[in-house]
Amino acid sequence: MAELKRALGGLHPESMIGGNFNIVDQEKFAHALVLLKESLWDKGATLFSADNLITWNKNFSFLRDPFFYGILTDDSTSLAEKSIIWRTYILLYFVEFACKADGDFAEFGCYKGHTALQIVRKIDFRALGKKVFLYDLFEWNEGDAHSHHKGLDNPNLYEDVQERFRGHEFVRVIKGSVPESFKQGFPERIAFAHIDMNHPDPEVGALKAILPRLASGGVVILDDYGWWGYSPQKVALDPIIRDFGLKVLELPTGQGLILR
What gap in Å lies between CA 48 and CA 27, rounded to an integer? Predict the structure, then answer.
């Protein structure tokens, strides 16, 4: 590989193997990766396989960035959180982009607060004078329509997320169903919104409330938009986006990007 680098006069190759979802036969999948590596000109030195993305012969700038490398090497970061690193890279790029827009930041479906924590680590919200609103049910009960994640079995999840952001006075954690919980607090103007609730009903309610308040230069990222398993969200959200004269860009990571 050193000889390949010298021949190309470029970067040292980077690669990553993380977790993927919706696989019913892990043994066959692992064997397929072995065969794929054997078929490649660099023998897998630039192979990325995580978050249902398999690609190679890319620079992977996020794997070279100290901030994102820190996420991947942090022992407190779960495998799932590490595996969505490409999503996080895209999200934080547009978080920085939206800092120039008027308004506050909000995440709808913050779960354990991992993504929100990366946002507040990346951005100096005190200097900007902006607030961050985090919304979630912080629970799952039998029969609930939203996805069941193991962390939702923690009866103290809401309190744990509050503790995670203790000392960040600009962060407000709001418990309850969306959009009903907006009565507890909602930004007057929105610069950035991240929607990740795994169900069309609350996502419709959130988007209908966000778009009238989305500032010029503002950004909305829909985490589930491009995932076939969550395609009811796309079906439900597309007409709302069109009604506001906006378009959504589906990304290979499964995210949907809206710019105003």
Answer: 18
Question: pTM of the full predicted structure?
Answer: 0.93
Q: Which two tokens stand for residue 234?
A: 């796309």
Per-residue pLDDT, 58? 97
Kindly report the backbone phi and psi dihedral angles of residue 48, in degrees, each rounded to the nearest multiple of 5, phi listed first: -115, 125
Q: What is the pLDDT of residues 201-250, one digit of tens each?
A: 999 999 999 999 999 999 999 999 999 999 999 999 999 999 999 999 99
φ and ψ of 201, to 5 deg: -60, -55
Is residue 126 pLDDT above 90, yes or no?
A: yes
Terminal Cα distance for the chain, rounded: 44
DSSP structure class, residue 65: S
Cis peptide leading into 239, omega within 30 of 0?
A: no
20: burial class by Cβ within 10 Å (0-12, 13-18, 19+)? middle
List C-alpha distances in Å: 93 to 118, 214, 249.
Answer: 12, 18, 15
Boundaries of CATH 3.40.50.150 in the chain? 82-259
The dihedral sign for the CA sequence 149, 223, 181, 177: negative
Summarised one tens digit per residue, pLDDT across range 79-122 is 999 999 999 999 999 999 999 999 999 999 999 999 999 999 99
Q: What is the C-alpha R_g of the chain?
A: 19
Name the CATH superfamily housing domain 82-259.
Vaccinia Virus protein VP39 (3.40.50.150)
